[in-house]
Specification:
DHBP synthase; 9 helices; globular
């Protein structure tokens, strides 16, 4: 069910859940200060309560207002990269419900770059908790149609066209001392971020071993032939009859990846065999997504 930005803003204020586009993927949003509304997100997705949500805000001022401590390094990152595909994890105020943060004392915040998302946040006037608008562990949506395929008419969708970036935001935490740790890689690389020692899947969304997976078709990383499968490559043809080429440049590859996973999953292949990606750091986020997609639960 498609809805307008104005109606979606009203629904958010009324405690309802709506789907909307960002530059990364479509989000499943609810008022982040309304614990009951946030619980509806978890119920719709089938998402475990141990997986925190990112809160989308309309301004840096709103982000500061949700943080009990806003380090200078967080301010520098926000001014440099927002609006954009970066989520900054900082200590939260008590008004942010534990449902949003999985009981953690911190909250992830970002200002999305998509004009529809920015207009929606401005009209709603509330911070919006929004994971990707898909069932838990499945492929994130990059079009409104992907959202409809996951939820039917159960969730109103603001259609903003295909997402530009195509995979989820980079997530970093910022300590009071200014240390920046990378919790989840994304297409935006933060040079000063150090790799965090991940102690728990609840430190950031997207850290569960199996994630970003097609519903029916398994993902394989390698060069082996799989009967009934399709080979997905980005360098040169392999000679296999059933194959698809994705771009050689990582940002262009990311922009198409989830749409391709949705499309090929619907065709009924036995497997999607992805050529291993380069070890270059520019491909880190894509290797992360494909590795998690290939895990069999």
């Amino acid at each position: 069910m498609t809805t307008t930005i104005e109606d979606a803003a009203r629904l958010l204020r009324d405690g309802e859940v709506v789907a909307f586009p960002t530059e990364t993927v479509y989000g499943l949003g609810a008022n982040a200060l309304d614990a009951e509304a946030v619980r509806r997100i978890y119920a719709l997705k089938g998402r475990p309560a141990t997986s925190p949500l990112i809160v989308h805000v309309a301004s840096v001022e709103m982000a500061r207002g949700l943080s009990s401590a806003w380090p200078a390094a967080a301010e520098e990152l926000a001014l440099r990269y927002w609006p954009g595909p970066l989520s900054i994890v900082v200590p939260k105020i008590a008004a942010v419900p534990d449902e949003v943060t999985s009981g953690l004392p911190t909250v992830g915040l970002r200002i999305p770059r998509h004009p529809v998302a920015l207009r929606l946040l401005a009209l709603a006037g509330v911070p919006v908790a929004a994971p990707s608008a898909n069932k838990f562990t499945e492929v994130s949506p990059t079009t409104a149609q992907h959202v409809r395929e996951a939820f039917g008419d159960a969730v109103p969708v603001v259609d903003g066209g295909p997402c530009e970036v195509g995979i989820e935001s980079t997530v970093v935490s910022v300590s009071a001392s200014g240390k920046i740790q990378l919790l989840r890689p994304g297409m935006l690389r933060i040079p000063e971020a150090v790799i965090a020692e991940i102690e728990s899947k609840s430190m950031s969304p997207g850290l569960h071993p199996k994630h970003y997976s097609p519903r029916r078709t398994r993902v394989v990383i390698g060069r082996q032939a799989v009967e009934g499968g399709i080979y997905v490559w980005h360098t040169s043809p392999t000679g296999n009859d059933a194959q698809l080429q994705l771009p050689k440049e990582p940002h262009a590859y990311a922009a198409q990846l989830y749409a391709v996973l949705h499309e090929l999953d619907a065709r009924g292949y036995t497997a999607l065999v992805f050529e291993p990606l380069p070890e270059d750091a520019a491909w880190d986020a894509l290797r992360d997504r494909l590795t998690r997609a290939s895990i069999v639960a």
